[in-house]
């Protein structure tokens, strides 16, 4: 079985967010323990497993995502990576519909090589800042929102871009405050640089201290910043050491996420 490592939300190798992608030969998933073992071996933020579905249904491929320690309900960058592999290998042409734990998600390719994901918009609920979260994050929250069941994060705006970039959180302490983790964000200091807001994502509860570029987090960042900046279409920079850009477009209860991807490794899974 072929296994590929794809850098997502970037057009340059060794940046963006790497994901393992396996297109399965059979029309069912192996046992969960097998999928989890492969994801642990790959040891990237997520590994995606997909198999073809019968024609005529609501979706074309079934898709699941695993971190090194757990299955997740939603993952943007590994979905982008899987759609990229389907397109570049010729396994699927045109828009592809994925059956997932978050419903049917559609990825649409474009002539410039980018792909657009159609994801559910996160329902943002304002919450009180939990005691201790400022100390664990290393910055004082300006606003705090719960992002809903698909992601289970806290979205926290901090003072400015410099603060986001300089965060050195206590990951073990952060694990106490949300189901998955913390999204820290701020308005871009200089929008002429090509992005409107910045973010970093810390997910210790699923084995990822810092995720390089998080598509699913942008289903919360898009409505948050679209309301504040007064525009449905924005670009977010996830300012991790690898970094990556996510173009967002808010369409009510759906959010479109657009980015590029590049395959950097291809090999054979031997066992």
TrEMBL record:
InterPro entries: Phenazine_PhzF-like (IPR003719)
Gene Ontology terms, MF aspect: isomerase activity
Pfam families referenced in this protein's UniProt entry, alphabetically: PhzC-PhzF
Active site: 46
Annotated TM spans: none
Family as reported in the entry's similarity comment: Belongs to the PhzF family.
Protein's UniProt name: Oxidoreductase
Native organism: Streptomyces olivochromogenes
């Amino acid at each position: 079985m072929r296994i590929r490592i794809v850098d997502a939300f970037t057009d340059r190798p060794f940046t963006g967010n790497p994901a393992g992608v396996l297109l399965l030969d059979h029309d069912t998933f192996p046992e969960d323990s097998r999928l989890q073992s492969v994801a642990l071996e790959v040891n990237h933020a997520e590994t995606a497993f997909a198999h073809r579905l019968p024609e005529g249904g609501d979706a074309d491929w079934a898709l699941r995502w695993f971190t090194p320690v757990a299955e997740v309900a939603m993952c943007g960058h590994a979905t982008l990576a899987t759609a990229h592999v389907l397109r570049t290998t010729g396994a699927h042409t045109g828009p592809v519909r994925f059956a997932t734990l978050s419903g049917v998600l559609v990825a649409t390719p474009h002539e410039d090589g980018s792909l657009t994901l159609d994801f559910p918009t996160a329902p943002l609920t304002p919450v009180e800042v939990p005691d201790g979260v400022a100390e664990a994050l290393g910055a004082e929250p300006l606003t705090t929102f719960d992002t809903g069941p698909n992601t289970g994060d806290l979205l926290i705006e901090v003072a400015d871009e410099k603060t986001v970039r300089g965060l050195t959180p206590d990951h073990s302490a952060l694990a106490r405050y949300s189901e998955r983790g913390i999204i820290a964000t701020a308005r871009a200091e200089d929008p002429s640089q090509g992005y409107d807001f910045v973010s970093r994502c810390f997910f210790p509860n699923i084995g990822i201290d810092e995720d390089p570029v998080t598509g699913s987090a942008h289903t919360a960042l898009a409505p948050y910043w679209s309301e504040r900046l007064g525009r449905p279409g924005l670009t977010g920079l996830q300012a991790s050491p690898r970094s990556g850009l996510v173009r967002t477009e808010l369409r009510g209860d759906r959010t479109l996420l657009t980015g590029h991807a590049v395959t950097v490794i291809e090999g054979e899974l031997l066992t």
